[in-house]
Write a structure and sequence with these properties.
Blueprint: E1 7-12, H1 16-27, E2 32-38, H2 41-51, E3 55-58, H3 64-77, E4 82-87, H4 92-101, E5 105-108, H5 113-127, H6 133-153, H7 160-174, H8 182-194, H9 198-215, H10 218-224, H11 238-253
Parallel strand pairs: 1-2, 1-3, 3-4, 4-5
Amino acid sequence: MEVPALIKVVIGDANPKYLELISRELKHELEIAVIGTASNPNDLSKLVSQYQPDIVVMDFMDIIDQGTAVVRQIMKKQPLTQVLVISEIEDDQFVEQLLKLGVAYYMIKPFRMPDLIERIKYIHHNYGNMFNLFYIRERRLIQQFLVSCFAELGIPPNYKGHRYLIDAILLVSQDDSWLNGITKRLYPAVARGNHTTASHVERSIRYAIDTAWAKGDLEHLQKFFPYAIDPAKGKPTNAAFIAKMADLIKIRFSG
């Protein structure tokens, strides 16, 4: 039986406590190999160029321009490497900016280590299940498109439903059959990657959609859902929303 390759991870954080904690905890994981740690952006860039990791876990966001510059540099030099940003910054526009750059995930400090570990595994196994340059670039473009759509619809990036919707829509855009078992298959799949429960995923997605319909701009709602803004017809179901966004992706990115 073929032994699965380890997930190669490089960690970058100016806080020595976080750097040591994350490194120590990840080294206990049989699926993960920590191949380097860096306490400053320059060393992180060198490690990424040298080792070409699967995933970079990084902060360096105290100076926002510096942090985003590092992200851009990694994306340019190592486009196959996924970036997971950890930071204490809770700003919707900043998170949206990072997601548009192609960051795979954003976690706010402090966080539970099991959540970080599960997210690393989820990113690697789901975002890298067709691990080639075309797929990675395509996924980042799709994520950027979805983040822009959600901004227009009025779904804030700090909502958990925002992240869960992106995960769900990415899966459905690759395989429509996920919609045949949205409760038994899709929600649990998204939940596993976010270290939560399927019911929490369902409720969070519902809340995000409800927020769009309660506070979103009517013109933008009409643009995306022309047949679903009549009060008599009500809001779209979770499945209908996910299916519609997946269809938009197929139309926009086909060919």
